[in-house]
């Protein structure tokens, strides 16, 4: 601003200074009047506030503190010369405020000239340039970021004119999308239309026509052919720009390569088609269910084959699956559903369900839990399959395993199950070291044989093994195996190792073992590897069969071979050996029997020795024997010696080997004396028959007497049972009568006494204090007596049983016991809502529970007891269980009988009267459980018998 007009007065001379000061101060812009040297001579309030200095401080020479060096240089070398030429200057510079902050400002300096054109004053205006500088810096930074994004992003930014399809701008990313650089699109208008497949040309023309008409779809997707010949998919998002009259002028947008997404969508569609095909074809069920409302978002059609219910039925209402669960598994379902709602999912679920047809099947289910952004379960997805065949197989496998274990445990032969996996690895290691002859290897390295023994793991042994080796337990046997093995055992073990290491799977041999008590046994050892375990040797079955008796017999036979001839020679029976029809051996007993020398007998035909009267049938018996149809002559026959004397003998024929050839052993036993005794035996037999008949008659009479006595005892037991019923019935009636008398008479009389004592001093003006206190004390004692009488009456005949029934009466009694003794008494009745028992049955059940609770309170030292009644047709179960010190049932019952205590016996008697049983389970330190089992169908009959 120049002020050179004559009408413009000089500042400070023609204008009123006070008025000028008011004008400058009223302005909110920081203004100052400076001299020709740019020193401020006047400043308004906004100016001084901006600096934080007063004008006096500025005029006092603080310019060096206010203006940094560059600003002083700028004012001296640039602004001042410009002012001298009469021109204005504006720009940025920095000042330092009173707080010490370096502040950028924008300033304007305008010269004031006199009439001669000489500079007299300078008017300056100043504004804070911090915001402006920040805005300019932000704009510069934004331009830099935009340039970086457009040049480095994988998406392409563009602006295209509608009138001629030319691009005002297209970013370099277009080359990575289309293969063409930006210059191709600048030089060839409408290049995109040339890149799309022919079948898409019409579509692009339609879209362009819509844009010319002002219709923008904002997002477009189409294919194009890349410069390398591949097919690409392009996603285009655009904005339509119009001129001021509203005519479309240009489009701006972003191009993205959507090939990967399009391919993923294609694969997803294929996957969905495959999934739908699987879901519709497989017998397994795929589903998604919302949590916690239990509605199905999806369930595959195979559910109808699986359960008989259609998908529509399954999705008809929440948790329809609960209706399919087998009743035995509904508690399990509730448990796992609560877990899912809490966000807990198990690896697998296995349960039974009922098909629509009523058939019970097994199902296996695997789930995945989905949560929202807050971690709350919202749905489960999973697959369910029919596991019935699997469960049947598992059950069969369990039964097979049980049968195997039973066979293993109950086998009369000693069986060992061993795991040789580590031994197999050791053999493989030896082979890798080049060992091929394991027999020589073990001979040269006996320590390796000991190592092999340490690698054998005994998995199990059966009872026959423990019995064979005299071991009390498996642990005792395996801990003392070194006592079992003998030198013979180690030789056999060496052979086993050689067989296994050489690729064999079976071995048999006879060895010795030593029992744990030191006895030597001979055993036949046999080990074999099942085919399915031959690759790993993880299961080897070893059997030991005790052959000690056979070995001892063989040894005894060998030892007796020498004694045999002496025995034969000195035997009482005649012995001869016939081979090929000739006698090759005769002992001296036969020579004596026939009174013929041995050598002479060897020359006879054996048949010549038979008495002529017996030869015919003996020949027939021998022929049948030789033909395999008999055992030879069985009846006594006669032989004739050289002296012609007949001897009665029995003939025995045995095939034997004689000097390696087949022969027959003939044994003749002299029975002549027996024949003489036959008559005597026949007579004795007849007499014995007579005695047997007489004894039989005596036994029949004794049996009849015993039968009658048994019947009398049975009737006596019935009479005792009837008397017991009548006795208990009379006892209950007497209890009822006594309870009624105590309540109606004694309690009433005592109440009258209390009333009279309370009114004893009515009408008297003064009563001695001591007498009044004694009267009150007596009244209090009588009141206690009333309460005790009523409690006794209640215990004799609880009125709650008549008024409320058995269940309520027992519940009240449990509460009274808890209040009186401090016990934690838990009472529960299941299935008894519509149960009807006659009064006699109820009173007996009540008494049994009452007695059990009394015993617990007095003797058990328990702090918790439970009473549970369960009606399970056809019986009523009553269980009383405590956590007390327990007792020995047998000894307690014996002590109770000796001490004439009837608590436990009375419970047994009451249960027996109702046709039931009582079971007392207890051990010292383990608590006590008493279980009554009462048949419901017999309660009325027992009551009728009771009343009879």
Task: For this entry, give a set of tags.
alpha+beta; extended; disordered C terminus; disordered N terminus; five-stranded antiparallel β-sheet
Give your account of this protein's structure.
By secondary structure, the chain is α+β, with helices and mostly antiparallel strands. 48% of the residues lie in helices and 24% in strands. The strands form six sheets. The chain has a five-stranded antiparallel sheet. A five-stranded antiparallel sheet has the order 7-6-10-9-8. Helix 28 (672-758) packs antiparallel against helix 29, helix 31 packs parallel to helix 32 and helix 32 packs antiparallel against helix 34 (903-913). The relative contact order is 0.02.
Give a topology summary.
Layout: H1 17-26, E1 30-35, E2 40-43, H2 45-51, H3 55-59, H4 63-66, H5 69-84, E3 89-96, E4 102-113, E5 119-128, H6 130-152, E6 156-161, E7 167-170, H7 174-178, H8 182-187, H9 191-195, H10 201-212, E8 219-225, E9 231-242, E10 248-257, H11 259-281, E11 285-290, E12 296-299, H12 303-307, H13 311-314, H14 321-324, H15 330-341, E13 349-354, E14 360-371, E15 377-386, H16 388-410, E16 414-419, H17 421-432, H18 438-444, H19 446-454, E17 457-461, H20 463-468, H21 474-479, H22 481-484, H23 487-501, E18 506-514, E19 520-528, E20 540-546, H24 548-570, E21 574-579, E22 582-586, H25 588-594, H26 598-601, H27 615-626, E23 637-640, E24 646-658, E25 661-670, H28 672-758, H29 769-796, H30 799-803, H31 806-821, E26 824-830, H32 839-860, E27 864-872, E28 875-882, H33 889-898, H34 903-913, E29 917-922, E30 928-935, H35 939-947
Parallel strand pairs: 26-27
Antiparallel strand pairs: 1-2, 1-5, 3-4, 4-5, 6-7, 6-10, 8-9, 9-10, 11-12, 11-15, 13-14, 14-15, 16-17, 16-20, 18-19, 19-20, 21-22, 21-25, 23-24, 24-25, 27-28, 28-30, 29-30
Helix pairs in contact: 18-19, 28-29, 31-32, 32-34
